[in-house]
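TASK: fixed-backbone design
INPUT:
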């Protein structure tokens, strides 16, 4: 992988992790756990957006939930 692709690859990995957390939140039966997972996914998605902004100047759209 070239150096120029690393920021977008990292952002993609972050988005995937956020999606996994969202799916886990949907399966959670405990409301507190569901909220915790949703909050963590939101935080990770925000981090992904920051990573894209600080990267190469391009912004990749987030996948819909």
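OUTPUT:
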């Amino acid at each position: 992988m070239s150096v120029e692709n690393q920021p977008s690859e990292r952002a993609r990995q972050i988005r995937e992790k956020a999606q996994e957390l969202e799916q886990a939140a949907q399966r959670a039966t405990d409301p507190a756990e569901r909220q915790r997972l949703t909050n963590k996914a939101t935080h990770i998605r925000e981090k992904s957006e920051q990573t894209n902004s600080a990267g190469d100047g391009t912004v990749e759209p987030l996948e819909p939930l």
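COMMENT: The chain is about 70% helix and 0% strand.
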